[in-house]
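BUG: 3D viewer hangs when loading the predicted structure for this chain

Environment: internal workstation, default settings.
Expected: structure renders.
Actual: progress bar stalls at 90%.

Input used:
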Amino acid sequence: MSRVRAVWRLLWALSHIAGGLWTIWRLFPQLDQPAKEARVHAWAQAMLRGVGITLVVHGQPVASGPALLVANHLSWLDIVVMHASRYCRFVSKSDIKHWPLIGTLAGGAGTLYIERSSKRDAHRVVHQMAERLRLGEVLAVFPEGTTADGIHLKPFHANLLQAAISADAPVQPVALRFVDADTGQTCFAPRYIDDDSIFVSIWETLCVRELRAEVIFGEPQHCQGRDRRSWAADLQKEVEGLRGTRL
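Structure tokens produced before the viewer hung:
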């Protein structure tokens, strides 16, 4: 039964992705930014429902920008979960721009791209992020830089926090986790690290009878005189603490 369920969910997801691409190509050129954000938010919520994932949100996401969201990174599913919780403009590695289908969806959602191996590009993106924050936008980053194992957090990189410092914008810590609703235990099916196959991860995720995506929003905070490195360390501790929140 789990395989039949997974096949059905996969077919539904592909049709939903096709609908998203059509919206980006045909409707987005005619929509203003708030309307685009509403479409992305609704699309992400529908995607989770369609593949049997229940979204549980704890805490209050910022009502408006400027704000920078920082979250732990577990899976290819994280961005969809974040968008379903609260629209935000992500900063992602430039490779995603060239991924079939995903690149188009990410671009339509307003993603900013960074070449992680280039210090010069990091400076460019920090400047671009600061400008977006000054315009009142809500941005989001995964400061670990890559996906982790879901058990331990990797050290938070501090470079992109400079944008929030430069724009005097608050940062809101966010914790993500996936739970098997049948057992109440952490679910590692969506995990995607190191040599994991994304196709295997997608398949195993779709096979879970009832997966719960939990998003825990902490309190927004300003740097209050901290440099970006000490602020990054404090935010890592905050996200770690939020991961232990019982829902």
